[in-house]
């Protein structure tokens, strides 16, 4: 798993995802603060930053769906904050996305299709063969809970508390702190749990043991 940790992080966003997740919110905060809390300027700055990132991604060969998806999310956040007039609502969609993601990961474990296994299986080109290995299925399930609680749960609690308190500045800081640094910790922790959950004689993630 150690060899694939970086690949897993890249597939789930990686440093590029962290930049896309933090630059537009920071642009919103700077635009909002520098214009004496003018929501329109903050929203405009965020959309401008997201548009620049989108253009850069397209020029450098990123998938058009990923590039435009990030821009669409910022435009949606800008429309929400322009409608409500509350700066903290710029982060409301991020809060909702993390709640939905946590629920999706939890459900995937309960129905025995843990998303960590789906992701790593795709990286290793195994499709769903890993599900036929009881040890791997159990290990992926245990490790996936790290993502439920360690990433999406933490983000939901922090973003939710700050959003309820109306602290837009703290939300922006939390957005940075809970992007790439948190993903790195979660990837490492889930890799450790995954490895320790497998029997000592198991051949490893790349070699599912499929019962005859």
UniProtKB/TrEMBL annotation:
Pfam families: DUF3159. Keywords: Membrane, Transmembrane, Transmembrane helix. The chain crosses the membrane at residues 39-59, 66-83, 103-124, 145-164, 170-194. InterPro entries: UCP010219. It comes from the Bacteria. This is Intracellular septation protein A. It comes from Actinokineospora alba. The lineage of its organism: Bacteria, Bacillati, Actinomycetota, Actinomycetes, Pseudonocardiales.
């Amino acid at each position: 798993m150690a060899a694939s940790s970086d690949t897993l992080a890249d597939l789930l966003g990686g440093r590029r995802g962290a930049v896309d997740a933090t630059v537009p919110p920071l642009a919103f905060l700077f635009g909002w603060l520098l214009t004496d809390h003018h929501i329109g300027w903050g929203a405009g700055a965020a959309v401008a930053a997201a548009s620049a990132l989108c253009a850069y991604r397209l020029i450098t060969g990123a998938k058009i769906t990923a590039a435009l998806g990030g821009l669409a999310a910022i435009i949606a956040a800008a429309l929400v904050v322009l409608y409500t007039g509350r700066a903290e609502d710029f982060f409301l969609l991020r809060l909702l996305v993390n709640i939905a993601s946590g629920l999706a990961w939890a459900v995937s474990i309960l129905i025995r299709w843990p998303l960590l296994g789906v992701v790593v299986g795709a990286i290793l080109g195994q499709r769903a063969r890993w599900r036929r290995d009881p040890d791997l299925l159990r290990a992926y399930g245990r490790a996936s809970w790290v993502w439920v609680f360690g990433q999406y749960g933490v983000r939901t609690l922090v973003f939710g508390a700050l959003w309820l308190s109306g602290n837009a500045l703290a939300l922006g800081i939390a957005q940075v702190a809970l992007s790439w640094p948190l993903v790195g910790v979660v990837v490492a922790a889930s890799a450790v749990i995954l490895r320790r959950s497998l029997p000592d004689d198991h051949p490893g993630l790349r070699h599912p043991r499929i019962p005859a």
